Amino acid sequence: MTVIRKLVSQRSAALAFAVVAGLVLLAVAAPLITWIAGSSPTAFHGDAVDPGLGGLPRGAAGGISARHWLGVEPVNGRDVLARVVYGAQVSLLIAVLATVLSVLLGTALGLVAGFFGGWVDTVIGRTMDLLLSFPSLIFMIALISAAPGTDRRLLLVVVLGFFGWPYVGRIVRGQAMVLARGEFVAAARVLGASRRALLVREVLPNLTGPVLVVATMSIPGYIATEAGLSFLGVGVQAPTPSWGQMIATAVPWYASDPAYFLIPGVFLFVTVLAFNVLGDAVRDALDPRSQRR
Amino acid sequence: MTLLTVRDLAVEFRSGVRAVDGLDLDLDTGRVLGVVGESGSGKSVTSLAVLGLLRDAQVSGEIRFDGQELTALDRRALRRLRGNRIAMIFQDPLSCLNPYYSVAFQIAEAYRAHHRAGRKQAHRVAVRMLDRVGIPEPERRARCYPHEFSGGMRQRVMIAMALCLEPDLLIADEPTTALDVTVQAQILQLLRELREEAGTAIMLITHDMGVVAGLADQVVVMHQGRAVERGPVRDVFHRPQEPYTRGLLACVPRIDGPLPDRLPTLGAIT
Amino acid sequence: TGGGGGAAGANAVAVKGGTLHVLSTLDLEHLDPARNYVTSSEDVSRLIYRTLTTFAAAPGQAGGKVVPDLATDTGRPSDGAKTWTFTLKPGAKFEDGRPITSRDVKYGVERTFAAELPEGPPYARMWLAGGESYKGPYKDPAGLASIEAPDDSTVVFHLNRPVADFGSAVSLPMFAPVPQDKDTGVTYDSRPFSSGPYKIDSFDPKKRLTLVRNTNWDPATDTVRKGLPDKVVIDLGLDTAVVDQRLIAGQGEDANAVAMEPIGPASVGRVLTDPQLKSRLVTGDSINTRYLSINTRHKPLDDVRVRQAIAYALDKDALRTTRGGPIAGDLATSLLPPSLGYQTEDPYPSKDGRGDPDRAKALLAEAGHASDLTLTLDAPASAAGKAQAEAVQASLGRAGISVKINEISSSAFYSTVGNTSQEHDLVIAGWSPDWPGASTYLPIVFDGRLITSQGNNDYAQYDSPAVEAQIDKIAAIGDPAAAQAAYGQLAQQIMQDAPVVPFLWDKAPILVGGNVAGAYGHVAYVGRLDLVSLGLRK
Amino acid sequence: MILYLLRRLAVTAAILLVICAATFAIFYLMPADPAQGACGKACSPERITEIRTTLGLNHSPLSQFGDYLTGIVSGRTYGTGEHAVNCPFPCLGFSFQTNQPVWQMLTSRLPASFSIAVGAAVLWLAVGVAAGVVSALRCGSLWDRAAMTAALGGVSLPIYFTALVLQYLLVVQLDLLPYPQVEPLTTDPVGWAQSMVMPWITLAMLYAGIYARVTRGEMLESLGQNYVRTARAKGLPEITVVRRHALRPALMPIVTIFGMDLGALLGGALITESVFGLPGVGKLAADAISSADQPVILGVTLFAASFVVLANLLVDLVYAVLDPRVRAVG
Amino acid sequence: MDEDDQRDERAADRSPLLEVRNLVKRFPVRHGLTQRLAGHVAAVDGVSLTVGPGETLGLVGESGCGKSTVAKLITRLERPTSGSIHFAARDLAGLNETALRPLRRDLQMVFQDPFSSLNPRHTVRQILAGAYRYQGLEPDQPAEELLARVGLEAGHADRHPHEFSGGQAQRIGIARALALRPKLVVCDEPVSALDVSVQAQILNLLRDLQDEYGLSYLFIAHDLGAVRQISTRIAVMYLGSVVETADRDTLFAQPAHPYTHALLSAVPLPDPDLEASRERIVLHGDLPSPLDPPSGCRFRTRCLKADELCAAERPQLRTIALGQQVACHYPERTP
Ligand SMILES: Nc1ncnc2c1ncn2[C@@H]1O[C@H](COP(=O)(O)OP(=O)(O)OP(=O)(O)O)[C@@H](O)[C@H]1O
Ligand SMILES: Nc1ncnc2c1ncn2[C@@H]1O[C@H](COP(=O)(O)OP(=O)(O)OP(=O)(O)O)[C@@H](O)[C@H]1O
Ligand SMILES: [Mg+2]
Ligand SMILES: [Mg+2]
């Protein structure tokens, strides 16, 4: 709890926290927002675009109007606001779930590797090295495009989580290794603690800090990677919106309809930035050593 | 002749900690001043304050070295004084030596910072100093890196580095705390010899009353940033005036003399 | 915009020399004549090798006319169009100066039978007598007896059935001559031996093809190709936006450049609103029809009412907008485009082609599928493919049909949907006849007897005995005009069953650089520029 | 040391083998049939069988994998007879879509990737490390805060976003640069540089941010070390203290991440190359994936992984040279 | 050795609580980048010890001589390479963790670093409860009572370790060790990390607890003063082996091993006059590397008396006086 107090006492962190909270709210309240704005993320509005000009939105700045607060998509005239808020839902959910998955895997395996050492460590450590040396982006794309028919969102979570766990695992392993040599673990062993008790009761609670930090730090990474994969054409499938996919479809339009490109881009940037600031702040708050502000 | 005079020294950190609070010290040329006190009493901060090495801290009071007011010196002048006229050795010799450079390089570096000397010449000085502090095979060992030395050897290297410029004052901050007794005895012996040979004044910071007793002429007992008692070693050890000093002397279990059933302690449980 | 294929810089004079740049977003899939069966590759290969006949180098419908190329005429049929004789022009040479002989033509056609060289058109295998069992010259060096080369300049084809437009068929690259000693098998693809005005200097697939003048090409023997630039550089695999923007900016070398493909929807607005740019836009008609194919073998799509409901529901205008709006072509109302000279009335009309969801719902209700109808649409995983798929999704959604999109990698798209077990309910497809006319269209796409488990073209898996009988009947008609009229009726007959919903007759709006002359869209190359006529002004 | 090197190389080879096997396995899970891709539009069932035979797809996965590995070390031939396709050593597969050995495609793409990676690396190292050092020295100052905010911004910007905004500004709006194209350095140095500027900046913005932050952290760490205090106590000039005693140790972890980053980039900057349409290894991968050209995907994956793994090895060796603690015993 | 035990005045009538014989522990040592196996360190190289009921055996020696390893072997935090550890009539050396668990109640440990031996995430109450929990027992006394025993207040029970001073934290560590009412407590340098004044408090506390509960201690330290203060018998270690054991007073008055002698003379005395007059034996050189120990007598490289015999033959511990054993060919004191 002191962590949160420390966080809020920093202006930048408080701001980042507010942005993140706002985004989560935006994502959760997406149906409400679209209901208020009277739009839907999938409905076409052929009248809002000009087919004679290749489907460019009618009106200035990407068709921003009272009906479409953030304008419409070219060609099909879908409401950008609705897509942005629903996209937030998808992007955040994927990132959070991928984080959960990678943290679970990474913590469990890193803990076991660091604590037991020996061949267990060798096997897990080598696996992590292996995964880390994978050209993961290429691999993710190949993997995702190789598995048609499945729910892309689920697939993204699994793939991101799978390629992400070694980053968590490496940190946890290092920490667990130090902790396992700690005298309090020796003390518990002298008291007769079983290995499971040592892992779960003694070592694990001490990992919450570092795990919290990597988790916070990896969320922006996943948001960006999900967006990047969508950008490369293997993201969330239509008509479900995600920010990366919006940017990807906007790419050809960046010169003729910059607003369409900029709006999801700015949302993505701000989100990733906010999470990064927050991650930094969490790390500083948990690490008494660092006076790095 | 007084070499170092500290008057009303106060150090306050940005965090609000007042580590030193109105400290006075005097050290004569060629003498050894023992500064003792418990952990956190401000010994190290005092020594760093003398060298102007404190960061994030407000230093007030007078520090007069050989007639010069150090607090008034600009950075360049202070830098020229460091190493050259006032040298320092620290508690943990491993972390105080840069792991990336050979010990000879680090000694020569100190020499070259104050003398116009070529690499070769500085290296020769370094080897000579290593020899002088009792490192066997100095030629070969000069090219070694700190991690290849034992704790005692590293402290010898630190001493060699401190003494290569023949300073007037050596500040030794717990030079033997990290060492074993037999090695400590070696280092103390070395300091004794050096003091006799070179006449270097030493400010010896330690929490070990025995070390002070064996080396110092004068002693200052520090407690919570102040000097609670000062005087010639004999007086302070045999006739401590302050209860704190008395407690400090009594609570250390000794290897000689009568064996008390319970050790006297200083104050309440902390 | 309108028909006829506007020709930018038509009255400007192109001079000989210079380097022409072509900017392409695609790759040249195959340059080997045996495998070359994609319009853009065909267009490019016309610079490199010659065929017995070829299309006239002319804008508009005139370009659909087949004219002699290596041959002296468009072929002399005999034996009720079962035997076709061609005489080679004297003086035509390969890039090394050797004369082109009938044996080279015979060998070139024989190569197309080799399994190592797949993907080419099926006509030789279908029509040449004994073609079913011939395995190509690598396995069977004796050659195919039904191709005769009695002397150096005569080649005779013996067919297993009468083929009235065989003279058009030999315009395909597969009828290009290949000298046997220059055949490098599979690797011939990257360096075919030149008989046209240019030869390959270097080819880096997906990157760049550089063509330089073939000094042994004699313009006197060639009435079609102009061969003006000294060098043609084709950049491949560029981004659509980049091609558009480079040509819009038109600076430096890009003034000497043309686009290979139509401008992207995102650039339409900018080009059309700028008169200077608009003047550099060449719009070519094509004979391509795009349609939504409905798998008639899947339930409940076997019910014609459901298919008709889809035909009513489809918002053709939205689909066209994904391709750039009106400039991308006219809304299709029937199977055969007006550019082939057909009447076009829509059996499933709607206002402005926006679809009629109410009619659709009514039909669905009648068929008992008012709700809960979920269909899967196969779409290529390209930007355009996705945009079209979403448009289909949205417009059928209005009629209560929910559509799931199944993205398929572009390169595997046709082979996947051509696999009857892998194909889903709906496919966005289209057909461009191999030469103007319906004979390489309706009989191939809608003849249920041709459905194969793999490599299928009848994505609707439409199999109507009545239609098949009609196809056989038309095949026997000798008079081209009568055949054309009969195909028109056939098209209408097919439309009643709604196996496909045509939505667009393509046009190709293509940007050309300011210094390029002689640019026009060629109807046989889906409206894209006829590369053989291009030249630089200075 | 030689023994160690051999062992490391063996481990490296083993890792690559596993990566290779994993990638290979994925393609067996893939419903798309490589033969179907090569067969194309007008594909008859008989043809597909013949193609499968030529490609060896009728063998068991394991023996195909064996063939693949054999190909890498000794080259291989697809099909039989006079017109069989020869894929010389090192045969990372053969693309029947482009009719080129994958190795040839990779090597023809390498110069572009190399130019992008090395140029960007120089830029980000210069900017990132310098900014990080200054920030650490002026920790808490206005400059520090500004630089770190910028760095965080750089880290948070999606690459393709930066890339396109750059292109919009520099090319479309200001007309300062042409659209990136591939000009070989040797024939057209100016054109080469012009086309590289944007990829460099794009990548450098991201990595300079990362490096500035890491450098700052490491510098603060090393500035707090006792040996820095010793150096000051010796009376060394501050510049020497910083350069020799603080920066040098701080650079060690940077060497590690630099090696890894550069290794990964040499294996292709997927997004950057795709956005700017530069024909590097990354673009090759993207194209191969979109056209399901499996031999190429497999080859690129392996190729890119070898860079990472080799970079790993190299970093360790560099460490051994730079860090006497690692060097001495061994 | 049985005879020696019989001669031991305290343990004469009872069998020893802990009897360690020829304990050996080797660690593989890997080096550098290559992680090459450089050899084995014999951290403990044939140590024999006994601790009787109610007795405190002090174990002194310089850094790296293997004191902590002995402690870890006895508490079975490490598995011995060879040798036996008889405790409560069982040999701990070969037992597995499950078999050890009940025995652990009687054999507890206090660690050097008071903070790192307490789990920073647990409250004091949780830490103390762990003692029972890990044994599968219900706590028989509340945390407050345990705290009171070591001189802490009940209010401290719900705090986290970092809220305590070093001395207080060490008291918590002691309370934890005592929760199960063990017979023997191994204390591995329990006071070295503490300030002098706090050191005295902890030493007094240990003494009080011993009197109260009849505990035995194996008290490890490098500080001879502290060892003298608390021990009844003292063993001196050098490079993995015990070179001398003696009653406390004998050891300080008449050290028999040259190393013990040098060690005692190296301890600075807090008395300027004594310091000035005292005869100093300054050993030359460093402790040899345990990776590559000298042949014969381990101490010979630094010993003034060493000769060929010392290089050739490793001296065994032998009794030279009542309660005094020494491993030296030329002890200062002969029987
Ligand atoms: N950089 C700093 N910032 C804030 N407080 C500090 C800093 N350095 C030292 N202090 C505080 O100043 C006080 C005196 O510290 P100092 O290091 O001088 O003690 P010491 O007598 O040398 O103790 P020890 O024997 O443990 O070395 C301590 O309370 C310490 O917490
Ligand atoms: N796990 C281990 N692996 C390898 N060597 C070890 C291990 N533990 C201890 N050693 C080595 O064994 C020797 C004895 O170590 P030990 O910790 O027992 O010494 P100590 O007497 O307790 O020293 P200190 O006074 O520094 O605590 C040392 O040389 C040490 O380096
Ligand atoms: Mg200190
Ligand atoms: Mg120890």
Quick synopsis:
Chain C is an alpha+beta fold.
Layout of helices and strands, plus pairs?
The complex is a heteropentamer of chains A (293), B (270), C (538), D (330) and E (335).
Chain A: H1 2-9, H2 11-28, H3 30-37, E1 49-50, E2 56-57, H4 80-116, H5 118-133, H6 136-146, H7 152-180, H8 183-190, H9 195-203, H10 208-231, H11 243-250, H12 258-286
Antiparallel strand pairs in A: 1-2
Helix pairs in contact in A: 1-12, 2-4, 2-12, 3-4, 4-5, 4-7, 4-10, 5-7, 6-7, 7-10, 8-9, 10-11, 10-12, 11-12
Chain C: E1 19-23, H1 39-45, E2 53-55, E3 66-68, E4 76-78, E5 83-87, H2 102-111, H3 123-127, E6 147-151, E7 154-158, H4 166-169, E8 198-204, E9 208-213, E10 231-235, H5 240-249, E11 257-259, H6 265-273, H7 275-278, E12 281-294, H8 304-313, H9 316-322, E13 329-331, H10 357-367, E14 373-380, H11 383-398, E15 401-408, H12 410-417, E16 426-431, H13 442-445, H14 465-475, H15 480-497, E17 500-511, E18 516-517, E19 535-536
Parallel strand pairs in C: 1-10, 1-11, 14-15, 14-16
Antiparallel strand pairs in C: 2-3, 4-5, 5-7, 6-7, 8-9, 9-10, 12-16, 12-17, 13-17, 18-19
Chain E: H1 2-7, E1 18-31, E2 36-51, E3 56-60, H2 67-74, E4 82-87, E5 90-91, H3 97-104, E6 107-110, H4 124-133, H5 143-149, H6 166-178, E7 184-188, H7 196-213, E8 216-221, H8 224-230, E9 233-238, E10 241-247, H9 248-253, H10 258-266, H11 272-277, H12 308-312, E11 318-321, E12 324-326
Parallel strand pairs in E: 3-8, 3-9, 6-7, 7-8
Antiparallel strand pairs in E: 1-2, 1-4, 4-5, 9-10, 10-12, 11-12
The complex binds adenosine-5'-triphosphate (2 copies) and magnesium ion (MG) (2 copies).
Membrane topology (chain A): Multi-pass membrane protein
GO biological process, one term (chain A): transmembrane transport
Family (chain A): Belongs to the binding-protein-dependent transport system permease family.
Task: Describe the fold and architecture.
The complex is a heteropentamer of chains A (about 290), B (about 270), C (about 550), D (about 325) and E (about 325). Chain B has eleven helices and ten strands. Chain B has about 270 residues and is an alpha/beta fold. Chain B has a domain at about 95-165. Chain C is globular and about 70 Å long. With about 325 residues, chain D is mostly helical. Chain D is built from 14 helices and four strands. At the C-D interface, α5 and α12 of C face α2, α3 and α12 of D. One adenosine-5'-triphosphate binds near residues 29, 61, 64, 66 and 67 of chain E. Chain A: InterPro entries: BP-dependent_transpt_permease, MetI-like, MetI-like_sf.
Descriptors for this entry?
heteropentamer; B: alpha/beta; E: Rossmann fold; 2 domains; eight-stranded mixed β-sheet; four-stranded antiparallel β-sheet; 12 helices; 12 strands; 31% helix; globular; binds adenosine-5'-triphosphate
